[in-house]
Specification:
The complex is a heterodimer of chains A (756) and B (570).
Chain A: H1 3-7, H2 25-36, H3 51-56, H4 58-63, H5 67-70, H6 74-94, H7 109-145, E1 152-156, E2 162-166, E3 175-178, E4 188-192, E5 195-198, H8 200-203, E6 209-211, E7 220-221, E8 226-229, E9 232-236, H9 244-253, H10 261-282, H11 284-290, H12 297-307, H13 310-329, E10 332-334, H14 337-345, E11 348-352, E12 358-369, H15 375-386, H16 392-408, E13 447-454, E14 459-464, E15 469-473, H17 475-480, H18 488-499, E16 503-509, E17 512-523, H19 527-536, E18 540-544, H20 549-559, E19 563-565, H21 570-582, E20 587-591, H22 597-602, E21 605-609, H23 614-619, E22 622-624, H24 632-668, H25 687-704, H26 706-711, H27 720-752
Helix pairs in contact in A: 6-7, 6-12, 7-9, 7-13, 7-25, 9-13, 10-12, 12-24, 12-25, 13-24, 13-25, 14-24, 15-16, 24-25, 24-27, 25-27
Chain B: H1 3-32, H2 40-54, H3 64-87, H4 104-115, H5 125-128, H6 131-161, H7 171-196, E1 207-210, E2 216-219, H8 224-233, H9 254-278, H10 282-307, H11 333-346, H12 361-372, H13 383-401, E3 409-410, E4 413-414, H14 417-443, H15 445-448, H16 455-470, H17 485-514, H18 531-565
Antiparallel strand pairs in B: 1-2, 3-4
The chains are: A alpha+beta (756), B mainly alpha (570).
C-alpha cells in the first residue's frame, strides 16, 4: 500500500491487515515500464518462482560450499563436515577397505551413498536459499545500476566557466550545472535555478517534481534523475560510489550485509543447540557399546543432521536478505538491517500533522446557513462564488455544494453531481477531482464577472448577470459590509468554527449574510483505522503540530491519534523523543526539513523523505523514496515480519526434532533392543528406511520453507499475546505434527520403490 | 494406604504450599532487601556482628564479577575446610563412635557434595562421620550452601528487575540474611516439631541393645532432628543415616513424612513470589509457580500410577494390592513413596524415603527426568529459581519471543547475544557433564564394575548418578557403589560443573541485564504472565530437556519398561 491508495481514499487501507508482501506496486510497474524498451535488460523478479532467478541461483549456490565461507554458519558447516565424513565412509566400504560390525544397522554402500547424497542436498538447499535471496536482490540492483551509468557533468570552475568531466570525477563540494534533458550526474543540493526533475527512476512516479534552492523539501536532487525543464546549479553532496543509488544497490544486493544483533543472538542459540545435539549423538556410541549395539558413523551422522536446527540454520541468511529486499521493494532505503529490526521494536510513533496526518490543505467540510435562510440559497451562493476559484479550497467548496444540492434534490443524477464519488463520506479531495472549468454546471452561465481575491478586502466573489454581487471571505470582513446590523448568529457561528480549529468563511449576497463555509484541514481517509491497527500492535501515535492546542486536539480526535503535541517547535520534538526514550520507549519519526535532522537522528528509527534535505537524509536510518510519511507504518510491519519469520522457523525447526527421534532411535537399536520398536509411532517399515526418510524429510523441509522465508510469515496487526498464540499453534504445535506425517509419507515412498 | 488417602496427602500438601507461598515470599523479599521484620530485634545485632567480623560494608553492593568471585571464594574455602575436617576428624572432639579419617577421594567428594548443596553421599553417615563432622561440617554446609543458592537467585532477580543500577547486591550480606532470618528460624521450629514426632536428637553413642533372639544390635543415634530440618528446608538431602528419610529416626511416621515434603517444597515455591514482588508484578511469580507446579503434579501422577502397579512379573498368587512395595517402607506405602520421590527430585533435595533403584522403570524415569530438566520444578533453594529463569524464561522468551515481532525481552529488558550465550553455556555444561561422564562410565571398567545390575538397569544407575550429581540433587539410584576413586572424583567434578557452570552464567546475565535500559510494556510486548506463557515455559523446558536426554533415557528406563513387559528383568 502506498500513499496513492491513501491519498485517493481508494484502498481499504487498514482493516487490521498490513500487507507488506506486495511491495510498492507503483514502483515495480514503473520499473517494468522503464525496462520495456530495452531488450536484454535483466528483468525485475516478479514471483518467488521466477524461473530465471531459480536457474540463475543454481551455480552460485554451489560456490557457497567453500568451507571457509561455510564456517560462518556453524549449523550448516557441521552438516557439510558430516556429509564429507559419510562420503568417505561410503568410499571406504565400497572399496572394501572398511566394513561394519555384525548386526550393524545401515552398513551397506547403497544406503551410505543415499545418506551422503541427501546430506549434500541438505547443504545445497540451504546455500540455494541464500543464493536465491541474493539473486532477487541483485536483479533489483541491476535495474538500478543501469541508471547509474557514467554521465557527463558540467563542472563549474572558480572562474565561472564550466568543464566537462565524467560523473565519476565529481567530489563533494563540486558545483555542477545541469540543463534540460540531461541526467543529474550525482546527489546534491540545488543552489541556483528552478526546474522540473523526473525522479521516476527512484520513485517510480513519472510526474516531474519542482526543484528550487533554499527550501527544505525541494532542494535536494538525486543522481540518475533527469531534468525535464530549465536548468539547475547543484552542489554535489556525495562522492562517486557513496551516492544514494550506490548505497541502495549495495544494500539490495546484500553485499555489505552485516548480521544484526538479533541474528547474532540467534546464531549463538543455534550453535549451542548444535553442540548439545553433537554431545547427545556422540555419546550414543559409548551408550550403544554398553548395550552391545554398534552404531556406525553413517547412522549417527544421520541422527545428528536431523537433530541440529538445519531448517533455521539453512534459511537464516535468506530470511535476512529477503527482509532487506522487501523494504527496498517498498521503495524505502534502509541503511542497515539493524534499522529494519529496530522498526519492529518501535512503540511510539511521532508523526507530523501536516502532510502526514492531514492533506495540509483546508477543504470545505460543511456549509451552515444562517437562521431564516434556506440551505439551498446558501449552497447556491457558495457554489457560484467558487466556480472560478481554482485553488483546492475553491474546488472543495464546489464539490461540497454539488453533493449537498444533489442530496437536497433527492437525486443521484450524475449530471448534477459531476465527478462525485457516491458514498464517499469525507469531503472530496483535489486529487483526480472534477474539472470545474469544463463543467456545464448550473449557474456557470449566470456569472458575469469574477471578483478575484484581494488581500485588502479579504474577500472574493462574483457579479451575476442580474447584477447581484456574491462575496465570500473572512467573517469580520463580510460583516463590515453588511446592510444594517449583522445578525449575531453570524459571529457566533464563526467563533464556533474557529474554536474547532477550522476556518470560517462568510457568504454574502447583496448585503445579506447567507451562511458560513467551514474550511477544515482534512484528515487523510483510512488513517483512523491504521492508527487503530497500530494501537492493537501496542504502538502509540503522537501527532506533532505547530497549531494551537484546540485545533490540534480537534484534528487528533478526528484522526484517532493517541496523543498530541501542540504548538511544537522543532526543538520540542527532540526533547519529546529523549523523554520517551528515557521512559523506555523506542521512537520512530519521519522528517524532511533540515531542522528535523537532530530529532530524526535521535529517534530509534528515523525515516527521511527523499524530497527532504540532504542533512535530514544523512541523519535518518531510512529514506523513503516515495516521500510518503505514512509508510513508516509499513516499515514497522516489515520489521516485525522479519523477526516473526525467524522466530517461527526456529520454533518449527526445534519442534521437528521430536518426530525425528521417534523415527531414528528405534531404528538404530532395532537389533540390540527390538522392544524399542514400541517407539516407532509412525510404523516405519524398515530401520534403514526410517533413517533415510527422516534425513530426506529434513532436507526437503528446507526447500519447502524457502518461499516462506523469502516472502515472510503473514503478519497481522494484533497484540503480542494474540500473535504468540497463533504462531505457537502454527509453528510450534504444527512443527511437532508435520514431520510425523511427512516422514511417514516419505517412508511409504521409500519402501515402495525399495530404496532401503 | 489407599489411593484416596494418598490423594488427600497430595492435595493438602499442594494447598499448604499455595497458602505459604505468598506470606513467605513477601517475608523473604523484605529480609533480602534489608527491611525490618519481626525477628529484627533479636537478629539485627547478630547480623551486624557478623558483618563486623567479616569486615563487610553492608551498604556496598557488588558488580556481577565481584559477586561471582565472592561466591567462588566462599565455596572453595568451604570445600577446603570441610575436606580437612574429615581428614582429621579422629583428632577432634565429639566422636563418640570413634570413627577414623575419611579416605581422600571420598572426603573430596563429600566436601564438594555438601558445599554444592548436592549431598550426594558415597558413605554411610553413621559409620563414617563423627558427630562433629556431621554438625559443624555437614550441617553447617546445609545452611550455607542453601543460603548461597538463594543469594544467587536474588542477585539474578535484582539484575532482571532493577532500573538504572548496575550492581546486583552484596553476596556476604545476602548469605548472612538468608541464613539468619530464613533458614535458622524455620529450621529451628521444624526441628522441634520433628523431635515431638520421635525424630532423634542426642549426643549419646550408639545404643547397644539385646534382641529377643538373644543377639545384639547397635543402634546409632545422634543430633538427627537438627540436621533433618535443614536437610529438607535447604534442599540438601544428605541423611544422617544411610537409609536417609526411610530410617525411622529420621522420618518416623506419616506426619513427619508430610512435614518433610512441605519443608522441601516451601522455599523454592515461595521464592517465585519473592521474584514476582521484586519484578513489581506478583503475577510474574505466579506464572513461574504454575509452570513448576504443573510439571511437578504431572510427574507425581505418573510416578504414583507407575508404583501402584505391582511388578507385572509377579505370579498371580502374590497379592498386588499394595503396589510395587520392593524397597519401600510399609508406613509410607507405594503412593507416598512415589510422591516423596517426585518432591525430592523435582527440588534438588535428594532425600529419599524409599529406594529409587527398586522403583519400576517408569517411576525411576520420572525422577531421572525431573533431575535432567535442570532441577527447575521447582528446583533447589534459589537454584530452582535461577535455573528456571536461565533455562526456561530466557530461552523461552528468546525462541518464541521473536514470534511477536519484537526483539525478545523479559521483564522489559532485551534478551541479546550475551544473555543467550550465557544461558546456552549453562545448558551445555549441564548436558555435557551428564552425557560425557555417563559415556565414560558406560564403557570403562572403572565405571561398570561398580554396578549392582546389568543391562538397561545398570545403565540407568550410571545415568542417574551423574544426573543427580550434575543436577546437585544428591539422591542415589542405589545399586551403584559410588565409593570408588572414579565415581568420587568424576562425581566431584560433575557436582562443581552442575553448581558453578550455572551460577556464573546466571550472575553474568544478572550483571548484563542490570545495566540495560528497561522497555516500557505495551500491547506489543510479549506477555510473561498467563496460561499461554506458562504453557510455553513448560514446553521449552520439557522439549529442550527431552531432546537432550531422550537417547540416553531410551536406553535406560524406557527400554527397561518395554523389556519388563516382555518378561526380561535385570
Amino acid at each position: 500500500m502506498t500513499s496513492q491508495t491513501l491519498a485517493d481514499g481508494r484502498g481499504p487501507v487498514a482493516h487490521a491487515v498490513v500487507d507488506t508482501r506486495a511491495g510498492s506496486r507503483r514502483f515495480q510497474r514503473a520499473r517494468r515500464e522503464s525496462q520495456a524498451g530495452k531488450p536484454g535488460a535483466p528483468r525485475t523478479p516478479r514471483g518467488i518462482f521466477d524461473p530465471v532467478l531459480l536457474r540463475a541461483s543454481l551455480a552460485p549456490a554451489l560456490r557457497k560450499f567453500d568451507p571457509r565461507q561455510m564456517i560462518r554458519n556453524p549449523v550448516m558447516f557441521v552438516v557439510e563436515v558430516t556429509a564429507a565424513l559419510v562420503t568417505l565412509a561410503w568410499l571406504g566400504d565400497l572399496a572394501g577397505l572398511t566394513h561394519g560390525a555384525p548386526g550393524e544397522i545401515g552398513r551397506s554402500p547403497g544406503f551410505e551413498l543415499q545418506i551422503a547424497v541427501w546430506l549434500w542436498l541438505t547443504v545445497y538447499f540451504a546455500t540455494y536459499a541464500e543464493a536465491l535471496a541474493e539473486a532477487r536482490g541483485r536483479a533489483q540492483a541491476a535495474s538500478l545500476r543501469r541508471t547509474r551509468s557514467e554521465t557527463i557533468a558540467h563542472r563549474r570552475l572558480p572562474d565561472g566557466t564550466t568543464e566537462d568531466v565524467g560523473s565519476a570525477a565529481l567530489r563533494v563540494g563540486d558545483v555542477i550545472v545541469v540543463s534540460e534533458g540531461e541526467t543529474i550526474p550525482g546527489d546534491g543540493d540545488v543552489i541556483e535555478g528552478v526546474a522540473y526533475v523526473n525522479e521516476a527512476v527512484i520513485t517510480g512516479e513519472s510526474a516531474p517534481v519542482l526543484k528550487e534552492p533554499g527550501t527544505d523539501i525541494r532542494s535536494s536532487v538525486t543522481g540518475g534523475t533527469t531534468i525535464t525543464s530549465d536548468a539547475l546549479t547543484i552542489r554535489v553532496t556525495a562522492n562517486p560510489g557513496e551516492t544514494f543509488l550506490d548505497r541502495m544497490i549495495s544494500l539490495v544486493e546484500g553485499a555489505k550485509r552485516q548480521r544484526t544483533p538479533n541474528e547474532i543472538a540467534l546464531f549463538i542459540l543455534l550453535s549451542g543447540l548444535t553442540i548439545v545435539f553433537l554431545l547427545a549423538t556422540a555419546t550414543l556410541r559409548p551408550f550403544g557399546l554398553y548395550a552391545h549395539a554398534t552404531l556406525g558413523l553413517v547412522v549417527l551422522a544421520a541422527l545428528l543432521v536431523c537433530l541440529i536446527p538445519t531448517t533455521i540454520g539453512g534459511l537464516l541468511s535468506a530470511i535476512g536478505i529477503a527482509g532487506m529486499d522487501r523494504v527496498a521493494r517498498f521503495n524505502v532505503l534502509a541503511m542497515s538491517g539493524r534499522a529494519v529490526e529496530a522498526a519492529g521494536d518501535v512503540d511510539v510513533l511521532l508523526l507530523d500533522k501536516t502532510g502526514t496526518i492531514t492533506f495540509g490543505n483546508r477543504l470545505a467540510s460543511r456549509i451552515v446557513p444562517l437562521p431564516g435562510i434556506e440551505e439551498r440559497q446558501a449552497l447556491e451562493a457558495a457554489l457560484l462564488t467558487s466556480l472560478d476559484d481554482d485553488t483546492p479550497e475553491g474546488r472543495s467548496v464546489v464539490d461540497l455544494c454539488r453533493r449537498r444540492l444533489g442530496e437536497l434534490d433527492g437525486r443521484d443524477d450524475s449530471s448534477v453531481v459531476v465527478g462525485e464519488r457516491p458514498g464517499d463520506a469525507g469531503p472530496a479531495t483535489t486529487a483526480g477531482g472534477p474539472d470545474t472549468t469544463a463543467d456545464p454546471a448550473p449557474g456557470r452561465e449566470e456569472v458575469a464577472e469574477v471578483i478575484p481575491f484581494s488581500a485588502a478586502s479579504r474577500t472574493s466573489g462574483v457579479i451575476l448577470r442580474g447584477g447581484s454581487v456574491i462575496l465570500k471571505g473572512a467573517v469580520d470582513a463580510i460583516q463590515a459590509e453588511l446592510e444594517g446590523d449583522p445578525p449575531p448568529e453570524l459571529a457566533a457561528l464563526g467563533d464556533e468554527i474557529a474554536s474547532q480549529g477550522a476556518t470560517p468563511l462568510a457568504i454574502r449576497r447583496d448585503g445579506r449574510a447567507l451562511g458560513v463555509i467551514e474550511l477544515k484541514d482534512t484528515v487523510k481517509p483510512g488513517l483512523r483505522e491504521r492508527f487503530e491497527a497500530l494501537r492493537r500492535m501496542g504502538i502509540r501515535t503522537v501527532m506533532v503540530t505547530g497549531d494551537n492546542p484546540l485545533t490540534a486536539r480537534s484534528i487528533a480526535a478526528e484522526a484517532g491519534v493517541d496523543e498530541v503535541m501542540a504548538q511544537a517547535r522543532p526543538e520540542d520534538k527532540i526533547d519529546r523523543i529523549r523523554r520517551e526514550q528515557a521512559e523506555g520507549h523506542l521512537v520512530a519519526m519521519t522528517g524532511d526539513g533540515t531542522n528535523d535532522a537532530p530529532a530524526v537522528a535521535q529517534a530509534d528509527v528515523g525515516l527521511a523523505m527523499n524530497s527532504g534535505t540532504s542533512a535530514c537524509k544523512e541523519a535518518a536510518n531510512m529514506v523513503d523514496l516515495d516521500s510518503d510519511p505514512t509508510k513508516l507504518i509499513e516499515v514497522i510491519a516489515i520489521g516485525k515480519q522479519l523477526l516473526i519469520t525467524r522466530g517461527a522457523i526456529t520454533t518449527f525447526s526445534i519442534a521437528n526434532d521430536v518426530a525425528k527421534y521417534f523415527a531414528i532411535l528405534p531404528a538404530m537399536f532395532s537389533v540390540a533392543y527390538p522392544q524399542l520398536n514400541a517407539l516407532n509411532l509412525m510404523g516405519l517399515t524398515t530401520p534403514q528406511g526410517a533413517i533415510l526418510s527422516a534425513v530426506i524429510f529434513n532436507a526437503l523441509v528446507i526447500i519447502a520453507l524457502v518461499p516462506l522465508s523469502i516472502r515472510g510469515v503473514a503478519y497481522r496487526a494484533a497484540p503480542a499475546a494474540e500473535l504468540l498464540r497463533r504462531n505457537l499453534l502454527i509453528y510450534g504445535v504444527g512443527g511437532i505434527i508435520t514431520p510425523f506425517v511427512g516422514i511417514k509419507l516419505i517412508d511409504v515412498i521409500v519402501a515402495s520403490i525399495h530404496l532401503a | 494406604m489407599t489411593n484416596l488417602e494418598a490423594l488427600v496427602q497430595g492435595l493438602t500438601l499442594l494447598a499448604a504450599i499455595l497458602l505459604a507461598t505468598r506470606p513467605l515470599g513477601g517475608y523473604i523479599q523484605r529480609v533480602m532487601a534489608g527491611e525490618r521484620t519481626f525477628l529484627a530485634p533479636v537478629l539485627r545485632p547478630v547480623e551486624r556482628g557478623i558483618y563486623r567480623a567479616l569486615g563487610v560494608d553492608a551498604s556496598r553492593e557488588q558488580a556481577w564479577t565481584s559477586y561471582a568471585i565472592s561466591v567462588l571464594v566462599f565455596a572453595f574455602v568451604g570445600i577446603l575446610v570441610l575436606y580437612l575436617q574429615q581428614r582429621v576428624q579422629e583428632l577432634l572432639p565429639l566422636n563418640p563412635g570413634g570413627v577414623g579419617p575419611v579416605a581422600p577421594n571420598l572426603a573430596l567428594n563429600t566436601a564438594v557434595s555438601f558445599e554444592t548443596n548436592t549431598n550426594w553421599q558415597n558413605y554411610a553417615g553413621e559409620t563414617t562421620m563423627s558427630d562433629l563432622t556431621q554438625m559443624a561440617g555437614l550441617a553447617v554446609r546445609n545452611f550455607t550452601s542453601a543460603a548461597m543458592g538463594l543469594a544467587v537467585a536474588m542477585a539474578l532477580v535484582r539484575g532482571l528487575t532493577r532500573r538504572g543500577i548496575r550492581t546486583i547486591g552484596n553476596f556476604w550480606v545476602d548469605v548472612t540474611r538468608a541464613t539468619l532470618y530464613l533458614l535458622v528460624p524455620v529450621a529451628f521450629v521444624a526441628a522441634i516439631v520433628l523431635v515431638s514426632q520421635g525424630v532423634v536428637q542426642s549426643f549419646n553413642p550408639a545404643a547397644l541393645v539385646h534382641t529377643l533372639q538373644g543377639g545384639t544390635q547397635t543402634i546409632p543415634v545422634g543430633p538427627v532432628a537438627s540436621q533433618e530440618a535443614i536437610k529438607e528446608l535447604g534442599n540438601n538431602g544428605g541423611g544422617f543415616f544411610n537409609a536417609n528419610s526411610a530410617h525411622p529416626f529420621e522420618n518416623p511416621n506419616g506426619l513427619t513424612n508430610w512435614i518433610e515434603m512441605f519443608l522441601i517444597l516451601l522455599v523454592p515455591f515461595a521464592l517465585t513470589n519473592t521474584f514476582g514482588r521484586m519484578a513489581g508484578d506478583e503475577r510474574q511469580g505466579w506464572a513461574l509457580f504454575a509452570a513448576m507446579m504443573l510439571i511437578l503434579v504431572v510427574a507425581a501422577v505418573v510416578s504414583t500410577a507407575s508404583e501402584i502397579r505391582a511388578n507385572p512379573l509377579f505370579p498371580s498368587q502374590v497379592s498386588t494390592a499394595l503396589g510395587n512395595m520392593e524397597g519401600k517402607e510399609v508406613r509410607f506405602g507405594a503412593q507416598t513413596s512415589a510422591l516423596f520421590s517426585v518432591v525430592t527430585t523435582g527440588t534438588s533435595t535428594g532425600a529419599v524415603n524409599a529406594m529409587q533403584d527398586s522403583f519400576l522403570p517408569l517411576g525411576g524415569l520420572v525422577s531421572l527426568f525431573l533431575i535432567e530438566l535442570g532441577e527447575v520444578a521447582p528446583g533447589g533453594i534459589g537454584a530452582g529459581l535461577y535455573g528456571h529463569l536461565v533455562f526456561g524464561a530466557i530461552l523461552a522468551v528468546f525462541i518464541a519471543g521473536l514470534m511477536v515481532g519484537r526483539t525478545p525481552e523479559y521483564l522489559g529488558k532485551k534478551i541479546e547475544a550475551f544473555e543467550v550465550k550465557m544461558a546456552m553455556l549453562a545448558v551445555l555444561a549441564m548436558a555435557g557433564s551428564i552425557l560425557v561422564f555417563t559415556a565414560i562410565a558406560a564403557v570403562t571398567p572403572a565405571g561398570t564394575s561398580a554396578l549392582g545390575n546389568a543391562g538397561p538397569h545398570g545403565f540407568t544407575e550410571i545415568l542417574y548418578a551423574f544426573s543427580s550429581m550434575t543436577g546437585n540433587n544428591g539422591s542415589a539410584f542405589a545399586g551403584l557403589n559410588g565409593n570408588t576413586p572414579f565415581y568420587n572424583i568424576a562425581g566431584a567434578v560433575a557436582m562443581l560443573i552442575g553448581r558453578f557452570a550455572e551460577i556464573i552464567p546466571a550472575l553474568a546475565i544478572a550483571g548484563s541485564m542490570a545495566g540495560k535500559r528497561a522497555v516500557a510494556p505495551s500491547l506489543g510486548t510479549f506477555p510473561t504472565t498467563g496460561a499461554l506463557w506458562v504453557g510455553l515455559l513448560i514446553g521449552v523446558l520439557v522439549i529442550v530437556g527431552a531432546l537432550t536426554f531422550f537417547p540416553a533415557l531410551s536406553l535406560g528406563p524406557i527400554v527397561e519398561e518395554f523389556l519388563l513387559h516382555a518378561g526380561k528383568v535385570f
